[in-house]
Structures are given as C-alpha cells and as structure tokens.
Design brief:
The chain has ten helices and seven strands. A seven-stranded mixed beta sheet has the order 3-2-1-4-6-5-7, sandwiched between helices. It has helices at 22-27, 47-54, 71-84, 104-112, 127-132, 135-152, 186-196, 219-244, 249-278, 284-310, and strands spanning 9-15, 33-40, 60-64, 89-92, 118-122, 165-168, 201-205. Helix 1 links the parallel strand 1 (9-15) and strand 2 (33-40). The chain folds into two domains: 9-226, Spore Coat Polysaccharide Biosynthesis Protein SpsA, Chain A; 247-310. Helix 6 (135-152) runs parallel beside helix 8, helix 7 packs parallel to helix 8 and helix 9 (249-278) runs antiparallel to helix 10 (284-310). It is an alpha/beta fold and 321 residues long. Helix content is 48%, strand content 12%.
Length: 321
C-alpha cells in the first residue's frame, strides 16, 4: 500500500460551550497541520466569533451552524470541508482541553504508513489514565465498548466514545455522512459506517486530561438511548455482511442457532409449567428434547461469534476507493 508523501493534515474542532478552553487547544496544535477548522455549532457563547477575533492565523477556518446539530453534526461539517479542500487526513479533537494536540502525530502515523484508514484514541491503555477517569465513565465505557464490538464488528477496538480520531479523507465520500447520527452516538455510528466499506481501524494509546469540565452527555440518556441504537446497527451489519454482500458457514450457523435456542427455551418452559400444574416431574426425555437444541444452538452461536471476530477488517481500503 502506498504511503502519503507531504500529507495535508487538517484539524476539526467542534465548538459548543468551550470558549474558556478552545484557544489553548488551538495554540497547542502542531505546526505541520495545514488547516484548523472550527465549527461553531450555534454556540451560546459565540465561540466561533471569539476564536476568529482572538486567533490570527491563515490556517484558521471558522464555520457557523445556523442551528445546533450536535457534536456529530459539527464534525461532519468539518469532514466535508476537509474533503472539499483536498486534505489527506482529518483529525477531530474536542475543544474542551481533554485531548492533548501533541498526540496528533501519533494518531496520524498509522494512516501515513498505510496501516490504517481510521485511528482513534484509547484511554484504557495507560493504568495511570484509567485511575484518573471518573468511576461512572469507567463502568460506562466498559459496557459501551462491548456493545460497540457487537454492533460495529470491530472487535479489536476499545473506548468507543473517545472522540480523538483521524480519518483518511478518501473515505469521506463513501461513508454516507448524511445518514450518520449527529449527536453523541456519532463515534459509534462512524465505526458502523466504516465497517460497511471494510475500512481498517486502529486504536492508539492516548492519555486524557480530566479537569473541572462537565460532560454534556447525560448518563441516563446514554443508558436509555444507546442500547436500541446498538441493536439496530447490529441487525443491519449482520444482515448486510452475512446475507446480502456475502453468505458463508457463519450465516448458516446464525440462521440455525437462534431458532434452536428459541425452540428449546419455549418448549422447555412450556413443558415445565405444564407438568408443574399437574404436580408431576418433567420426564428426562422431555428435558433432553429441550436441552439438546439449546446446547447445539449455543455452540452454533459461539461458532458464528468466532468467525465474526476473525472477520474484523484489517486491510486498509483507501487505495481502492
């Protein structure tokens, strides 16, 4: 795979209630970055105008939203502009100071070297960073990471809500960004879209900085809204990858495994209740008729899961798009 010579790297910063931190973030961005794209997402603090008045740089581009679209909507706007001006790599960094711009080089290196199409930070590599993370974030990230592996098919990544990312701009036109979730499910939905084009995603160890900032993401909203969205993406991914674009032994295993488990559970519960009302023990033959489909079905699901894990996209796609 060819490497990128003299890459044009841009940084996308979604701006919403980050007026007190964003200038410091911009000032720390490395000199090799060609353009800094700040997207004012209808910020009540008018951060876009503040940045424009404060930062004197030809690299700076401020884009304004007429209405608030959410962090995902702001990043999509930045990505589209990066693609329009023919950037090679677009790095997304938050303006709240939790991400160190000094890590940008580390983030883009796998893309420059032809090892990945998309990279993202992972705060769980470092034990020190993990210990600094608030407890509720630790629990939430662990749970969301497993759901993300299931729904996106990237079993090699962790810390899915980490917004410190870099993308090869050749992928942007292929991702149908108009369909990507514009709110806090954006990072996960991006991974789902990347899987549909078999893009290679790589985790990069990144230390996070936790100060006095408050997250705009509600824990309750995450608990209520994210699981249904994960389920929807999981069904779409499985249907597309295993029954539309391809059909393999894993497709048959899943197709047989779920009905067998369902039949075994329904039949077993019905027989247990039926015999319990009569005050008699369930015959061993009936128990076996229930248990055997469950055991076989479970083995088939394990076989499918093993295939799905081994099927994680590993080869970069940008040269072929």
């Amino acid at each position: 795979m060819p490497k990128i010579d003299s890459p044009k790297v841009c940084v996308v910063i979604p701006c919403y209630k980050v007026k007190n931190k964003v200038i410091d973030v911009i000032n720390k961005i490395p000199d090799f970055v060609s353009q800094i794209i700040c997207v004012d997402d209808k910020c009540p603090e008018k951060s876009g105008q503040y940045i424009k008045n404060t930062v004197n740089s030809k690299k700076l581009k401020v884009i304004y939203h007429e209405k608030n679209k959410g962090v995902g909507g702001a990043v999509i706007t930045g990505y589209l502009h990066a693609s329009k001006i023919n950037c090679d790599i677009a790095v997304k960094i938050d303006g709240d100071g939790q991400m160190d711009p000094g890590h940008i080089k580390k983030l883009i290196n796998p893309i420059l070297e032809g090892q990945a199409d998309y990279t993202k930070g992972n705060r769980f590599f470092s034990r020190g960073t993990f210990s600094q993370m608030p407890f509720i974030r630790k629990v939430g990230n662990i749970g969301l990471s497993f759901l993300t592996k299931l729904s996106t098919g990237y079993w090699n990544i962790f810390d899915p809500t980490n917004g410190f990312t870099a993308i090869h701009c050749k992928l942007i036109p292929w991702l149908q960004l108009e369909k990507v979730d514009e709110r806090y499910f954006f990072e996960t939905d991006m991974l789902f879209r990347l899987n549909t084009i078999r893009a290679a995603v790589k985790d990069i160890p990144i230390n996070a900085i936790y100060n006095d900032e408050e997250s705009n993401l509600s824990n309750w909203n995450t608990l209520l809204q994210f699981p249904p969205k994960h389920l929807k993406r999981f069904i779409k991914r499985i249907g597309y990858n295993y029954y539309v674009r391809d059909f393999s032994i894993a497709s048959i295993a899943l197709l047989c495994g779920i009905p067998l488990i369902s039949w075994g559970l329904i039949f077993g519960i019905y027989q247990w209740q039926h015999n319990a009302t009569k005050g008699v023990a369930t015959p061993s033959g009936t128990v076996m008729l229930s248990a055997l489909p469950i055991i076989i079905g479970f083995q088939l699901l394990i076989s499918f899961l093993n295939y799905d894990i081994s099927n994680t996209p590993k080869d970069p796609q940008n040269p072929f798009l």
